[in-house]
Design goal:
Number of strands: 8
Structural class: alpha+beta
Radius of gyration: 21 Å
Number of helices: 3
Largest sheet: 6 strands, antiparallel
Number of domains: 1
CATH superfamily: Uncharacterised protein PF16224, DUF4883
């Protein structure tokens, strides 16, 4: 009976340690994303369809739309989607967050935080809304950036 008590304590301790390590691992690979702080959004495009890059300020109606889309948990991974030529820069007085929509319409958005890539998954409707807003400013995302 005495040994059974120690075995139970050892097993419970091992389970708690493993659960803690799993929690730490997954917590470290996720990033909470919320763009509500932004007062402005700048669309920055580099080397798009052999055109010179450009930057444009997003109007307030589209700012409200985009702020609603980019919320949730981003995961740390490395998908095969192309990123980089199109950036949405969310800004306020003391804070800036830059998001990079995937160029192949896969619905992923890359966020770089402390040198690590994170990816936010947009559902089909949110991805469609984002593409509609970007198309107003001359950017289509079906070009494999």
């Amino acid at each position: 009976m005495k040994y059974l008590k120690w075995i139970i304590i050892a097993v419970l301790t091992a389970v708690l340690i493993i659960a803690s390590l799993v929690f730490i691992y997954f917590k470290a690979n996720f990033l909470s994303v919320n763009t509500n702080f932004a007062e402005t959004i700048t669309l920055e495009v580099r080397d798009y369809h052999n055109r010179e890059g450009f930057a444009v300020q997003i109007n307030q109606e589209d700012v409200a739309t985009l702020k609603k889309l980019f919320r949730g948990m981003a995961f740390g991974d490395s998908p095969a989607c192309p990123f980089g030529s199109v950036a949405l820069i969310f800004s306020a007085e003391n804070r800036t967050v830059t998001l990079y929509p995937a160029g192949d319409d896969c619905g992923l958005v890359r966020i770089i935080h402390n040198g690590q890539n994170y990816y936010l998954i947009l559902n089909e409707e949110d991805n469609r809304l984002m593409r509609e807003v970007l198309e107003k400013y001359g950017v289509g995302l079906m070009f494999g950036i």
